[in-house]
Amino acid sequence: MIKYFICLSLILLPLFYNVEGLNIEPSPWKPIANVQLGYYVEIGRYAIEEHNTHTMDILAFMNNVQGKEQYDNGLRYALIIATRNNDGITHNYEAVVFERHVNQDRVLESFNEISI
After folding, report:
1. Which residues contact 80 (CB under 8 A, 6 or more apart)?
2. Closest among 97, 101, 84 to 40, alpha carbons compared
3. How far apart are CA 102 and CA 41, in angstroms?
4. Do the Cβ atoms of 28 and 34 come closer than 8 Å?
5. What residue ranges in 1-116 does DSSP mark as E strands?
6. pLDDT at position 26, please?
7. Which residue among 6, 41, 50, 82 is the one 20 to 30 A from 34 at the CA level?
8. Residue 69 CA, distance from chain mean position
9. Per-residue confidence (pLDDT) for residue 40, from 0 to 100
C-alpha cells in the first residue's frame, strides 16, 4: 500500500509543482478569439486598477482590443486595452498579467502605452 502512494506521488508531484532546477519552456503564445468575454474583461480591468494604484494615474477601462495567452506554470495574458484618461483622451496600452493557478493570484508584469 505504501509503495502505491509513493508511486502515485512521484507521478502527480510534477503536475502540481515545478521541480527546482527543472527548466520548463512556456507554451507558444495563442491569440484570444474573443477578448470581450467577461473573464478577459476582468483581467483588463485588473491591469488598469493595478497601474493606477502604482502610478497615481487615472485611467478608465474602455475595452480590450486584442489579446493572446501563454501557459507558463500558470497563464500569462498580453492584452491591448483601450483606456480613457481624466481629460477624456483615449490611449492604448499593452498589459501583461500573469495568473498563478496554485496561489490563485495575479501579477501585473508590464504596462506600456502603444500605438496601433
Report:
1. 64, 65, 66, 67, 92, 93, 94, 114, 116
2. 97
3. 22
4. no
5. 30-31, 59-71, 75-85, 90-100, 105-114
6. 86
7. 50
8. 7
9. 97
pLDDT at res. 9: 57
Catalogue the long-range contacts made by 12-20 (C-beta closer than 8 Å, 24 or more residues apart).
Answer: 16/102, 17/102, 18/73
- Enter the C-alpha cell of residue 31: 491569440
SS3 90: strand
CA dist., res. 40 & res. 44, Å (int)? 6
Q: What are the grid coordinates assigned to 116, written together?
A: 496601433
Cell numbers that stand for 52 in this block: 493606477
Spatial distance between the Cα atoms of 81 and 111, rounded to a whole number of angstroms: 10
Helices and strands counted in the chain (H then E): 2, 5
